[in-house]
Amino acid sequence: MQVSVIRLRPMEDLKKSLENFVKENQIKAGIVLTCVGSLQASHLRLANQPQGTTFEGKQEIVSLVGTLATSGSHLHLSISDSTGKTIGGHLLEGCLVYTTAEIAIGILPQLRFTRELDTISTYKELKVYPK
User: Fold this and answer.
1) How many Cβ atoms sit within 10 Å of the Cβ of residue 39?
2) What is the total count of domains within the chain?
3) What are the two backbone dihedrals, phi and then psi, of residue 55, each rounded to the nearest 5 degrees?
4) What is the pLDDT of residues 11-30, one digit of tens each?
5) Residue ranges making up the domain that contains 93
6) What are 115's strand-pairing partners?
7) Which Gene3D superfamilies match (predicted)?
8) Which residues sit opposite 91 in a β-bridge?
9) Quick one: pLDDT at residue 87?
10) Residues 79/86, Cβ–Cβ less than 8 Å
11) CATH number of the structural domain spanning residue 40
């Protein structure tokens, strides 16, 4: 595994920035190892909801997990507010960095991820192939 670390600056979009990094580096199979930072606005699709929900105000990034690939990524974000209340969901565009987002990404050069329709879940799900 190769490891890359990126730092996002204020007002950068977390999802768009990750997608750009994956595209620019032609990552066929990657994983988020860790992420710390803060957001000034968040946009998540909560469990079993068809649309995203926007959360205004400053939040700490508690975790960011998921798979990354030029063929499609799947990322979940957990955030906490000033009282410690934590919520999480599917990362959508609109999560804007407040002070920083420091992200370590594991790149798996021996693998290739794709997203293919699963007949049981009816969603495009992860398929892993050797490179």
Assistant:
1) 22
2) 1
3) -120, 115
4) 999 999 999 999 999 999 99
5) 2-130
6) 126
7) Hypothetical protein, similar to alpha- acetolactate decarboxylase, domain 2 (3.30.1330.80)
8) 44
9) 98
10) yes
11) 3.30.1330.80
The pair phi, psi for residue 22, each rounded to 5°, is: -60, -45
Residue 55: per-residue pLDDT: 97
Residue tagged 């998921």 (tokens) = 66
> Using CA atoms, how far apart are residues 65 and 33, in angstroms rounded to an integer?
7
Residue 68 pLDDT grade (very low, low, confident, very high; cuts 50, 70, 90): very high
Residues 6+ away with beta carbon under 8 Å from 33: 3, 104, 105, 106
Asked if 53 and 89 count as a contact pair (C-beta separation under 8 A), the reply is: yes
